[in-house]
Every structure is written in C-alpha cells, then in structure tokens.
Amino acid sequence: MLLAQIKIGDWLTLLGGALTTGWLASTLWLGGTADKAIIRSGGSVFREVSLARDQVIEVPGPLGISRIAIHDRQARVASDPSPRQYCVRQGWLKQAGEIAICLPNQVSLELGGGSKPYDSLNY
Amino acid sequence: MTASTIKLQTTARDHHLARMAALALGLSVLEAAIPSPLPGVKPGLANIITLIVLARYGWRSAAWVSLLRVMAGSLLLGNFLAPGFFLSLGGALCSLLALGLCRHLPARWFGPVTHSVCAAFAHIAGQLLVVWLWLIPHAGIAYLIPVFAAAALLFGTVNGLIAAHFLAEPHPRLAEAT
After folding, report:
1. Which of B106, B108, B121 sits opposite A17 (nearest CB)?
2. Same domain assignment for residues A96 and A54
C-alpha cells in the first residue's frame, strides 16, 4: 500500500540513487590495491617504500623507535613506544588510503597508490 | 508615561508557517535524542514536514519552514553558531536548492519520494562541503562518503514515503496541524 505511492519516476530516482551510492563505494573504498607505503615522522615524509619487498623499517620519533613491517603487500606498525598502542592494534593495512597514526611518537604509516600512472597497454 | 507595546502585524499565513515550523522543530528535537552511529547520520524526520509544505504550499513556504526549523532548533539544542549549526544550515540550503529544481519535474511521474531522495543527497553534499572546506580539510573524509550516501538513500526514501502517505490521504490527519 505504501509502495503504491512510488511513481515510475520515483523508481528511476531510487535506481539512480542506488547506482550513485554503489559507484561512490566502489571508487572510494575499492580504490585499487595499494602499491606503496608512505611513512611520516614529525610531519614530514620519512620514507616512501614499495610494498613489493618484505622488510622492516625503523623510524625514530621523540619517544623512541617505531618499527614498520611490510609483508605480503600489506603494512603494519609492528611495534611502537606510544603508551596506548592504537596504531599497533590497528593491524595490517591493505588498501590504498588506509592510515595508522602513532600520535605520541609522531609517526604515521599510510598506504598510497590506486591510480597508477600507467596501464598495461602503454607501460 | 504610558507603557507602549510593540505589536507586529502578522498574517494568517505567518501563523500557519510558524505552526508548521513548530511541528518540524518538535520532530528534530525528538530526533536529537536518537543515538547515531556516526555524526551526521540521522533520519531527518523534520524534512517530512518540509516535503508536505512544499507539495501543498510551494517552495517559498518550504524554505521558511526549513530555515526557521534550523534556527530555532539550534537555539533549543544549544548549538546556535556552533559547527553543528553551520552543518545543518549548509545541508538545509542545498536541500532547498535541490527541492527548487525537483519540483519542476512532471508531477505525473515524480512524487515526494523523488523530492525527498534528491533533497537528502543534496543535504549530505552540502554538509560534506562545509566539513571539507571548513572543519576537516583532509581527503580522508572521502572514505565516509559512501556511508552518508547510503544513509541519504535509505532515509530519503522512508521520509518521502511517509510524506507521500500523508499527502495521499483524502482527509489528512495532519490537516488540523498543518
């Protein structure tokens, strides 16, 4: 009975709204797999590293050393001297745009990438 | 010295708009008590009144009701001129703009549901614009956009259906109130 209030144009509007929402989610959330990790310390970029190679990077901060681990195209803060350990407990970061911030030690780890500067045709 | 009173000349239309704004105000105060998982995600029940006023009395009346509700609502909830107020105002202005455009769609095919969904999307667009330009100028808020869009779609549809339901009644129960 309530559905009888929806006219044809309304259905089109709802469809448009659903498509817009789906499109927003797919472009903003599935922003492609990440291909690099951007590590910042004290507000400036400390290092930008590729996710292709597994490694552990030690980043100095005011409280001590934060260890950033890269493994299997994922990255995490493996250890950090910050008291509450928020960034460590965040676990593995997988997608572009994800970020772990260790505020007390002024270290952040962000995954970048997504829009690649080349494609398979002209690379 | 005689006591003087200032009396504003009000018309029946003013009283009528004030009554409907008060109704919308009641809904938005009621809604402020509902816990929200994310700031900004809420049903927007007061917009049902705006939609009914738009359909019955036109865009100018709807704009009055909507903006009076934002003003008086912020005074009641205690966030007048605080960030929350500007978020509401930005959302309301964008919604009204969208409603102004939507009402020119042919009424045969497009009803309150379309108006409501368009206004809801315009509302979050306006709010996110205020957030992005003023409060959090960081690309990170883009991550939340799909959540807001989904909420706008859901609540826009529900509010539109409720408004359509009241507008379709031959003897609307809201008639005495509006």
Report:
1. B121
2. yes
Query: A75 with A38, same domain?
Result: yes
Enter the pTM of the model: 0.71
The reply to whether A120 falls in a domain is no
Cβ-based contacts of A20 with chain B (< 8 Å): 121, 149
CATH of residue B97: 1.10.1760.20
Give the model confidence (pLDDT) of A5-58 as tens digits: 788 999 999 999 999 999 988 887 775 667 888 899 988 899 988 888 889 999
| Number of domains forming the structure of chain A | 2
List A33's β-bridge partners, or say none. A95
Mind listing the pLDDT tens digit for each residue in B115-174?
A: 999 999 999 999 999 988 988 776 677 888 999 999 999 999 999 999 999 888 765 555
| Beta strand ranges found along A7-93 (DSSP E) | 34-41, 44-50, 55-60, 65-71, 74-79
Identify all chain A residues contacting B113, using CB atoms and an 8 Å cutoff. 5-7, 10, 13-14
Give the count of domains, chain B: 1
Rg of chain A taking only CA atoms, in angstroms = 20
Residue B12 has pLDDT above 70, yes or no: yes
Q: Which residues of B touch A97 (CB under 8 A)?
A: 140, 143
Is position A22 within any domain? yes
Give the range of the structural domain holding residue B62, as residue numbers without chain letter: 13-175
**Structural domain boundaries, residue A80:** 34-113
β-pair partners for A41: A44, A107
- Residue B124 buriedness (CB in 10 A; 0-12 / 13-18 / 19+): buried
